[in-house]
Amino acid sequence: MNPDLRRERDAASFDAEKLTHILDGGPERTRRRREIENLILNDPDFKHEDLNFLTRSQRYEIAVRKSATMVKKLRDFGIADPEEIMWFKRLHMIHFVEPVGLNYSMFIPTLLNQGTTAQQQKWLPPSKGLEIIGTYAQTEMGHGTHLRGLETTATYDPKTQEFILNSPTVTSIKWWPGGLGKTSNHAIVLAQLYTKGECYGLHAFIVPIREIGTHKPLPGIIVGDIGPKFGYDEMDNGYLKMDNYRIPRENMLMKYAQVKPDGTYVKPLNNKLTYGTMVFVRSFLVGEAARSLSKACTIAIRYSLVRHQSEIQPGDPEPQILDFQTQQFKLFPLLATAFAFQFVGAYMKETYHRINVDISQGDLSELPELHALTAGLKAFTSWTANSGIEACRMACGGHGYSHCSGLPNIYVTFTPTCTFEGENTVMMLQTARFLIKSYDQVHSGKLVGGMVSYLNDLSSQRIQPQQVAAWPAMVDINSPDSLTEAYKCRAARLVEAAARNLQAELKHRKSKEIAWNLTSVDLVRASEAHCHYVVVKIFSGNLSKIDDKPIQTVLKNLCLLYALYGISQNSGDFLQGGILTESQLTQVNQRMKELLTIIRPNAAALVDAFDFQDVSLGSVLGRYDGNIYENMFEWAKKSPLNKTQVHESYYKHLKPLQSKL
Amino acid sequence: MAHNRCLNTCSFGPKIVSVVPEPPWTSVSHAHPHPPTSEMHLCVSRALGGDTAFNIHSVFKQALNSLGSDEQIEKWTPLIDSFQIIVTYAQTELGHGTYLQGLETTATYDASTQEFVLNTPTLSATKWWPGDLGRTATHALILANLYSSGRCHGMHGFILPIRSLQDHSPLPGITVGDIGPKMNFEQTDNGFLQLDHIRIPRENMLNRFSQVLPDGTYVKQGTPQSNYLTMIVLRVQLLASEFIPALVKACIIATRYSVVRHQSKIKPSEPEAKILDYQTQQQKLFPQLATAYAFHFIDEIVIEFFKKSYQEIINGNITNLPELHALSAGMKAMMSDHCILGAELCRRACGGHGYSLLSGLPSLVTKVTASCTYEGENTVLYLQTARFLLKNFLQVQSSQSTPTLPQSIQYLASAGSGRCPAQRTSDFLSPQLYTEAFAHVAARLIRNSAQKLHNLTSSGIDQYVAWNQTAILHLQAAKAHCYHFTVKTFVESLKKLEKEPEIYQVIKRLCDLYALHGLLSNLGDFLYDGYMSRAQVELATEAYFSLLSLIRKDAILLTDAFDFSDESLNSALGCYDGNVYERLFEWAQLSPTNTEGNPAYEKYLRPFLKNNRSKL
Fold first, then answer.
1. Does A334 score more than 50 pLDDT?
2. Contact status of B550 with chain A (Cβ, < 8 Å)
3. Do the chains contact at A64 and B605, CB–CB below 8 Å?
4. β-pairing, A265-266 with A258-259?
């Protein structure tokens, strides 16, 4: 092991293994996770060449091979628990990019949610056993987040009892669905339902797209891959154009709405249950933001401990670059953020499970808030993680730019999270709608509960200048609880400001919609402030649950750093809101620098606690043993350009050039 | 694929050579080479979209012109101009980057044969990253520590043949190859190089400023400061050749797409709105557009200053060198930072389609993002600017009379009122008002960082340790200084447009937006010492929002004015005619995944599906 890393690990003030247990949710779960990961690590069937040196087609092929192998192995190993499947996938697919994945993540769940019992009996066994491979086709080339804008039509023909699916325009071509381009032979297609001359809005239809046995597109179906992307090389995101393509009536998912054989449309009972899937996926994405940022931090911090550069004092040997204050200032706030998001991810998972129990008992009361919260937190955490991963890459200097660092891959795989499952700005505005609604509710004299209860105090008191002045004295910059209060004040102030600006626009006799658009930048800021408050609250709330004293101390420091860094980056809000005074802000900046120094000795152990296997980091710079340079050289030698000493372009272009001139 | 790209760009390289007439600086007296004004090269590169090989060849040429003697320039120039040899510039090592003194490669003089022995003593001393080194170059300019008569004399440049001119194979004792795939620059064969006691003649050391005599005596001549010059030249050139076009192109693509793309409804009774009509979309894109214009005009002024100072320095007057060095470092760091962030923001503002390579945006982003480290890591560069600021600030403080300060930091001497005078919204559209606000903040942050440093050193802490403990403050001060410089310079260049009132009005709005966006995104700095009041923040915000809707009307013409051809944008989303969807569909069909069958199905999916079915 690299001597720098060994020394760092020995010097830590806490036991990294115990922190891993906390992050996993208990030692037993850590043990089981590692057991499953080791099944893959020790399995020759999952070995393959470094993906960085392969073409897209080759990467796709390996992904398909691994998916096929995986299905067999899951059966062999008897892994059925969804979370354990996740652990398994996370290691063998590294970034979860899996052409067959949509069959499990979208096709089967949609059947379960929207299919009748008969439909489930017919379609579930073959899709679970992968006799058919399904995907989910919603997004169109010209239409994304705004579902009502989708153009694909499904027109019922009572004569033959069939639906005619059609893509009437270029913009209506289904575009982006994963696994659609080359892999799937069935798709659940979202289309506008027409029957008896009326449009009834979006419904889901099971559409066979490729012939069983030959895999050729069926007549009337045009299907293919949408071409190269920023990342997701292994995924065949596809397009689908249907030319008056007929499917039987039974292929419409009819658990809620129905079309009778004669074409009569039966309306669904009003249900909020479809929220459930969205809430689940988005809360899962919060966890992904935490994991991706944690990976990037692991790589950047390990590299910064092994890399030596310049001198702090002339004559001294070159220091580890993590000893530069500017490097600490780049990385430690991100490390603190990664831990914050880990706790938020765990919180979202718990809340989802808790509320699921309520829902199954018919209690939907908490769903609107949870829906609003997951939308906002998905946007907040993915934006933050997105720029955080990129900052980690840049903190690794030139080597971060090489694919051997693994950081470019983490970034390009993570960044679509900002747009998929709801574009982030739109998500923030959904949260804002809930905040404004709650604000109005309080105004009309009704109290609100949950994470927005702070609005109750706000509106009854109508912030008075005196009260504003009373806040600063209350903020103790060494207390996570007190800082949570400060964030709460900020959120309250920004929600109030957005609500008032909205009112002002309305007074200019503008329509509600125009007023909303002209306030939307304020509304997004209000949502961000709300989410920021929630994250600080969850992080600081977790501290008291930790028994191990050394770990509690180190996490408290990270929590403080997270909160103080956020204040320094948004100091305008805290000053403008009168929440902090100028001199407190000076103390915040001073304390933040002290925390950098305090956290420094534990940096290596903190990233060790995330417990990523080298394989799942996919990074030469982030190796556990820190033997970076030897392995970079070995890695480079495998580059396809090095296969021959003299490249063919020499004979084609260079040699003629040299002799001609 | 990296492999094919390399082939393609190699074929572009020679074509460039034939289209570009003799670059203007090659024909003049080599003793006083003109500053490189490679405008023709820029145009060709712009037309070809920038993906060409032999870029490092010209870097070498600059190094040769700045560090080589007249005889050396005379000897090597014809060889490189006629492409009989292709030279790369090898400085960075596997374990060492920005900190030049840390490089490990050695060049030891052997007086008995009058040769230098070049050697790579450790793995971390392996040259790593030089462009064109992996597969293309025949020669390299190697930066190595010179040892002669038993003493180390620091970094010097040596020209070394690395490949046979007959069959291009590596010469004995040379290990050379490609460093593997990167985020972009797939067409460039960035390489590694190890030297095992390679001997080269004494004449191959570049010796304009120092030389080793046949007996091994080391002689220094001229100022070592001129060594900075190559770096400065490079940094200044990068602004217009690499950074600004990336942001400009990204703005064009995202803005055009945003008026073609319709999404949701603003009003239920109306059809789906263009996404550029959403305030949140304007808030994402217009500050980037304003920055693109700001940088374009600022670059012109930086280049003017650069040309003037370069001429003076070459003639031995180095008065402006420190300022030129600080300015080029600061502008390189700031412009690359903002262009990286801006281009990525534009990409994400295009939703899912921005993630497709067919949008052209990912490659713009991955290319420009390399710039945060090359030619000087940005944090290190900001800190260099900070040292310059600190030095001048201390001079202002200690001198009785007002010292003559370099142009870009004269605001340090003029004491402002300490209060922002704005009373109504329109006051924030006054260039004088906001320029002063930025000057105030920059001066305060510089003063503060100097004070904190002083406090530490006077409490007995070693000055180097103290510098590190206050580095974040210096970083903030340098950033604020650069921001002020850009605002002030954009305002100055506005004046040149006064004769064209219509254009002036449009660009003035962008200038206002650039300044107000900077102000509102760093609000804490302006509120901190009560320079601005809370009520003034409301006014500034109002002014900012009013600009968004004014710029909305001109947005498309503002992007058209950059006059980039569809070919050089290479984007299905950003084409001039706006036929986004037709192009996306057409281009996708051409993807090899659609034209080359599906071997994965034959190999894995077919047997797999069959097997699953037969189990029933």
1. yes
2. no
3. yes
4. antiparallel
Nearest CA in chain A to B598: A182
Q: Domains of chain B by range and CATH?
A: 38-226 (2.40.110.10), 239-398+421-561 (1.20.140.10)
Q: Using CA atoms, how far apart are residues B77 and A617, in angstroms rounded to an integer?
A: 47
Question: Is A567 part of a structural domain of the chain?
Answer: no
Is residue A61 less than 8 Å (CB to CB) from chain B? yes
Parent domain of A118: 102-268
Alpha-helical (H) ranges within A238-324 are 274-306
Q: What is the pLDDT of residue A390?
A: 96
The single-letter DSSP state of residue B240 is: I
Grade residue B502 by pLDDT with cuts at 50, 70 and 90: very high
Residue A152 belongs to a domain: yes
Residue B500 CA, chain-centre distance (Å), reads 31
Distances, alpha carbon A95 to alpha carbons A401, A405, A408, A413, B605, in Å? 19, 15, 12, 7, 21
Smallest Cα distance from B152 to chain A, Å = 15
Q: Tell me if A618 is assigned to a ligand binding site.
A: no
Question: Distance, in angstroms, between B70 CA and closest chain A CA?
Answer: 24
* CA A486 centroid distance within chain: 27
pLDDT of residue A659: 67
Burial of A461 (0-12, 13-18, 19+ CB in 10 A): exposed
Check pLDDT > 50 for residue B250.
yes
Q: In this structure, which amino acid lies at residue B426?
A: S
Domain count, chain A: 1
- B31 has a pLDDT exceeding 50: no
Does A456 lie at the interface with B, CB-CB under 8 angstroms? Answer: no
| Three-class secondary structure assignment of B459-512 | CCCCHHHHHHHCHHHHHHHHHHHHHHHHHHHHHHHHHCCCCCHHHHHHHHHHHH
ipTM field: 0.90
Amino acid symbol at A177 = P
Per the confidence metrics, is the pTM higher than 0.80? Answer: yes
The CATH number of the domain holding residue A149 is 2.40.110.10
Retrieve residue B87's tokens: 């030279």
Mean pLDDT across B10-38: 36
Q: Per the domain annotation, does A643 fall within a domain?
A: no
How many whole angstroms separate alpha carbon B131 and alpha carbon B125? 17
Q: How many helices and strands, by DSSP H and E, does chain A display?
A: 27, 11
Q: Name the one residue in this structure whose structure tokens are 């929600």.
A: A495
Q: Is the CB of residue A235 less than 8 Å from the CB of residue B365?
A: no
Q: Is B535 on the interface with A (CB under 8 A)?
A: no
| Alpha-carbon gap, residue B514 to B286, rounded angstroms | 9
Segment A571-592 mean pLDDT: 94
- Ramachandran assignment for B360, one of left (phi > 0), alpha (psi -120 to 50 degrees), beta (any other): left
Q: For residue A235, is pLDDT > 70? A: yes
Chain B residue at shortest CA distance from A510: B267
On the question of pLDDT at B15 being above 50, the answer is no
Q: Give me the residue from B1, B585, B589 closest to A55, CB to CB.
A: B1
Q: How far is CA A432 from the centre of its chain?
A: 20
**Given this model, what pLDDT does residue A95 score?**
57
DSSP for A336-375, written as a single string: HHHHHHHHHHHHHHHHHHHHHHHHHTT--TTHHHHHHHHH
Is there a domain that residue A167 lies in? yes
Catalytic residue among B93, B186, B242, B375: B375
